[in-house]
Write a structure and sequence with these properties.
The chain has about 450 residues and is α+β, with helices and mostly antiparallel strands. Helix content is about 20%, strand content about 40%. It contains 9 helices and 33 strands. The strands form 7 sheets. The chain has a 9-stranded antiparallel β-sheet. A hairpin with an 8-residue loop joins strand 2 (about 45-50) and strand 3 (about 60-70). Helix 7 (about 250-270) packs antiparallel against helix 8 and helix 7 (about 250-270) packs antiparallel against helix 9. It is elongated.
Length: about 450
C-alpha cells in the first residue's frame, strides 16, 4: 500500500513506528514526523535501536530509544534503555522512508497499550522537565574528583529527570536528540567538563600534581577550605624571577636541575612498599630537595569565593584542603612537572618538555569583572575562554533571575542556597551542590528562597 492510498483509507489518528539500528536517530525522527503528518496522524510512538559507539569503552552499546510524540507530533518524552523494553512485537504495515523500511502499526488499542507501558519505563525523560547531572566519584592519591559531565574510561557521569529515581550515562541521553539538547553547532562535541576537586586536608598528601596544559583551559571557584591556609601553586615565584633578573632560560635550567634531583629521591621512596621502613636519611633528603624545588614555584593564598583562571602553559597545583568547582576544556592532556607522591597514571614525569613550554610568569589574583548589577542580583564574569564561558550570579533572597533562551546548552550549578526553578510553568526545587543541564533553546526562571549563588556555564559567550 502506498502513502496516498493509505491516507485515503486511514481512519486512525495514532501510530507506532519501529526501526532498526539508526545511526542518526534524531534525523530519523524528523523524517518520521514529516511522514506521519502527511498521513494526518496526530500522535505517535517511535521506537528504534541505536548502536552507540563508546570511545571511553572497548565495546559499543545497543540502545532502544523510544520517542512519544504529542498531538502536534512534537517529541514530548523519550525513553532510553540498553534493553528491549518495547520492541517485542513489530506487527504492522511496511513503508519506505529515506530508503529504509520501517514497520508502522495504526491500531489504536495497540498504541494505547504501548503508550501505557512506555510511561512506566524506568528511564523516562519528559522534555518539559529539568535534567539533573548525577556525579561519579573518582578516587585520586590526593583525594577525589567528582565529575558532573565527565566521560572517560575511569568513569562516566549520569543524568536523571526531575521525577526519575534512575539515571543513565550522559552520552546515552544526548544520543537521542543531540541537536535539540546541545544546539546544532555543538551536537557532535563533548560537554564542557564540570567537576569538583576535593583534596585531602593533610599537607603534601592532599597537594595535586604540579602540571601544565597545552590545550586545556581551566577555572577554579573556591567553595571550601579545610586547611589552615588555602593555597594554589601557580606560575613561578616573583622572587625567583627577580633573582635571575628575568633570565628565564637560566631560571628554567636550574629549576629543571632541582626537580631532577628531587625525582631521584622520590622514586627511591616510591619503590619501598612498606612506608614504615623508609630510611630516615631518605626522608630528610626528600624534605630538603622538595623545599629547594618548591622555592621556584609561585603561590596564591585563597579564600572561599575566589575564582582562579588557569590559562594554558601556566604551571599550577591546587593545594591540600581547598575544595573547588572546576570548569575545563573537555580534553585529557597534561604535562606533569613534579609530584610529592607516587604518580599512578603514568610511569614518568614530563618535566623537561613542560619547562621548555612553560610561561614563566608570577602568580596574580584578578578581580572579577561585573557584567550586570541590580538591587536584586549581581552577575560576574568567571571566565571567557575560546571553548567555554561562565558567569557567577549572586541572587538576593526572594528575588528572581531569568535564564534566557540560547541556541546552545547551559549548565547551572547551585553553589549555595535554595532556589525554585520555573520551567514551562512547573516549579522544581534546586538545592546547593546540584548541577542541572538546560537544553538549547530553553528558558527558565530561578527564584531564591534565601541568598543564593550559582554558576552558569556554556560552550560560548552569552
Amino acid at each position: 500500500m502506498n502513502n496516498l492510498e493509505y491516507k485515503r483509507e486511514n481512519k486512525h489518528s495514532c501510530a507506532v513506528v519501529f526501526a532498526q539500528f539508526e545511526s542518526s536517530p534524531e534525523n530519523f525522527v524528523t523524517s518520521v514526523q514529516e511522514f506521519l503528518n502527511n498521513l494526518s496522524i496526530t500522535q505517535a510512538l517511535i521506537i528504534c535501536h541505536v548502536c552507540l559507539q563508546q570511545p571511553w569503552s572497548e565495546n559499543s552499546q545497543q540502545l532502544e530509544i523510544a520517542y512519544l510524540l504529542s498531538k502536534q507530533l512534537q517529541v514530548e518524552k523519550i525513553s532510553i534503555s540498553n534493553k528491549q523494553e518495547l520492541c517485542q512485537q513489530k506487527t504492522g504495515d511496511n513503508f519506505i522512508i529515506n530508503n529504509k523500511t520501517i514497520t508502522v502499526n495504526f491500531d489504536e488499542f495497540y498504541y494505547a497499550q504501548l503508550e501505557k507501558q512506555f510511561n512506566e519505563l524506568p528511564f523516562l525523560f519528559s522534555l518539559n522537565e529539568p535534567f539533573f547531572l548525577d556525579p561519579v566519584h573518582i578516587p585520586k592519591p590526593w583525594g577525589q574528583e567528582i565529575w558532573y559531565t565527565g566521560v572517560e574510561k575511569r568513569g562516566v557521569s549520569k543524568i536523571s529527570s526531575a521525577h526519575s529515581k534512575s539515571s543513565i550515562p550522559v552520552p546515552w541521553f544526548l544520543a537521542a536528540l543531540p541537536e535539540r539538547m546541545l544546539g546544532e553547532k555543538y551536537a557532535s562535541k563533548n560537554l564542557v567538563l564540570i567537576k569538583i576537586l576535593d583534596p585531602l586536608p593533610q599537607e603534601v598528601v592532599g597537594d595535586l600534581y604540579y602540571e601544565l596544559h597545552q590545550e586545556k583551559n581551566e577555572v577554579y571557584v573556591v567553595t571550601d577550605i579545610s586547611a589552615k591556609v588555602g593555597q594554589i601553586k601557580m606560575g613561578i615565584s616573583q622572587e625567583k624571577i627577580e633573582q635571575y633578573k628575568n633570565n628565564i632560560p637560566q631560571l628554567k635550567h636550574e629549576f629543571l636541575e632541582a626537580i631532577e634531583k628531587y625525582e631521584v629521591i622520590r622514586r627511591k621512596i616510591d619503590a619501598i612498599e612498606e612506608k614504615n621502613k623508609i630510611p630516615q636519611e631518605l626522608i630528610e633528603q626528600e624534605l630538603l630537595l622538595r623545599k629547594n624545588m618548591d622555592e621556584f614555584a609561585g603561590y596564591l593564598n585563597l579564600q572561599i569565593g575566589d575564582v582562579i583562571a588557569v590559562p594554558i602553559l601556566v604551571p599550577h597545583a591546587l593545594q591540600h584542603g581547598v575544595r573547588v568547582i572546576e570548569f575545563q576544556t573537555p580534553t585529557y592532556e597534561r604535562l606533569i612537572i613534579s609530584f610529592a607522591q607516587k604518580v599512578l597514571t603514568q610511569n614518568h614525569w614530563d618535566t623537561k618538555l613542560a619547562l621548555e613550554l612553560m610561561k614563566a610568569q608570577a602568580p596574580r589574583k584578578e578581580e572579577l569583572q561585573k557584567l550586570e548589577q541590580t538591587e536584586h542580583y549581581q552577575v560576574e564574569l568567571v571566565c571567557k575562554f575560546p571553548d567555554f564561558y561562565a558567569v557567577r550570579v549572586s541572587l538576593n533572597s526572594l528575588r528572581e533571575y531569568s535564564l534566557k533562551k540560547r541556541n546552545f546548552y547551559q549548565i547551572l550549578f547551585l553553589v549555595n542556597g535554595i532556589c525554585d526553578l520555573n520551567l514551562n510553568g512547573q516549579i522544581y526545587s534546586v538545592t546547593d551542590g546540584q548541577c542541572l543541564f538546560i537544553p538549547a533553546c530553553c528558558s527558565a526562571v530561578l527564584s531564591a528562597q534565601n541568598d543564593s549563588t550559582f554558576l552558569i556555564c556554556a560552550a560560548e559567550q552569552f
